[in-house]
Amino acid sequence: MALIFLLPAFIAVAIFLYYPLVQTFIYSFFKMQRTMDWLHAPFVGLKNYVTVLTSEAFRGAFLFTLYFTVVSVALEIGLGLGMAMATFSVSSRLRGVLRAVLVVPWAIPPVVSAMVWKWLYHPDAGLFGYLIHASGLTDSAPQFLTDPILAVHSIILADVWKNSSIMGILMLGGLAAISKDVYDAAKVDGARGWFRFRRVTLPLLLPTVLVCLLFRSLEAFRMFELSFALTGGGPGTTTDTLSTFAYKYFFTYSKFGLGSSYAMVIFAIVLALAIAYVSRIRKNLRFKG
Amino acid sequence: MKSKHRYRYRRRANQVLDVLITLLIAGFCLGPLYWILATSFKPMGTEYLIPPEGWPSKPTLEAYRIILGIPSEASQEGVSGEGVFGSATEVPQAPSLHFLLPIRNSLIVSSTVAVCSLFICSLAAYTIARLRFRWKIQSLLLLQVAGLLPAVMVIAPTFVLMQKFHLLRTLPAMILPNIAYNVPLGTWLLAAYFSELPWELEDAAKVDGYKPFQIFRKVILPLAAPGLFSAGVFAFLGTWGEFILSSVVTMGVSSVQTVPVAILNLSFEFRYQWTWVSAAIILSVGLMVAVALFFQRWVIQGLTAGSVKY
Fold this sequence. Notes:
heterodimer; A: 289 residues; mainly alpha; MetI-like fold; 74% helix; B: 310 residues; 2 domains; 15 helices; flat
């Protein structure tokens, strides 16, 4: 009986997620140049993987993806925590306003948010370039998207804008779940300010923070849209993520085999992260019934 | 007397601080969007002025008119009065853009996906949260691991699959996979919601001889309306923003493109017309922000339920 109820979900997931996963795995062992028919493509064994893992481009994309994930997730957790604490501390009317405001960046499609930032970073008429130039910090407007180091951090800033607020909302939920009794007890003991935050709030919020951290880093590691729409991976390949690289191999170079091995490598890394994730939340996977 | 005064002073200072904090966070979250809004009202070309105008001195809806493909009064007169020549000279560049088309496509795709995935997810979530059966944890894991697959991982075979079914360049090519993409998160959110519902009504229904599907339809679904709502909004917003699949299966055919793909193409095609791109951004964002704000309570509830209650 239970299986009949689960069947639609299983069928959907099997056709559009697990079947393609198996296919990608198979593709990754074939040399598929401008063809999507692996049955008639030459089998090359692990050659694609060797090509991917030894290539300079892979190392670049991997390092960028890793750097992007670590820096942006750290910033997002920090800012999100700050925004959650701030939202929690203001009067209830303003709290309602802030909660609404925090939902906005999250509701914007990733590609659209990339367009927003592309205009802010515009080399000739972008607001940021103008502000920095006008304040006398640089001689000319900085090239946010064409200077290699700036491009990397421009993407990180755009991502931080998009995702910090959602971290804020999640942590706000965590803060609201902390019982008022705990704070009353802390008050009796004379814990206030930073000390109370450090010794009372933070430890109780830690489970939420951890879930946010894993959840965000899984997502950040798969990041595609920002890099694709903001810089197109440029300058050169400095801001190519593993995902945009795989995409380029598929649909720009039409090398399905090589692209598939790229995708498999991403999957292996995501899976490792996911195992950490699931082992963290496993005890709550047991629904009653 | 003095201490009372100080108390009042401190309270006032706190209020000011609260407002400052609110403004700071609001500025961070909404500032970039304000800039796009201001740009979208600028007359063509003035978006490049240095120093940039904080708010256009002569705000105009020209960019929206062009984006939506509404002919201007001048060009209409030209067409009716002097024929092709008149309209060609009066409107030097008025490409026929129909940004309503991608919005319509996105609305069709997202709402179909939301409804279908809600149906699938609520059944699965009910089973996982409320019924007893053997492979429960394994079933849940099977669904959740699918949610971790990166989009690029499944995109190439999905493209091949759609090609085999002759669905490329059609809306179903986006609808069907997106239903599946929403199953893991939707099931998770709903299962978290269902598991919080009281058991009493369900037990009473069982005593009355209801079958599981009847319990699901007549007891659980009505009780879980807020949870269904939030899962629906999630599926809708997620599908609205989906890019990789849409960009691949539409293959550059503008009549079936969804909003993210259309906006990216627009920004490539008219890379210097930032008033147009801004207008398109505002149109596509405005709707989503309205949805998110209108259903804010459920969105936040859903987000919190799905993550904090782990």
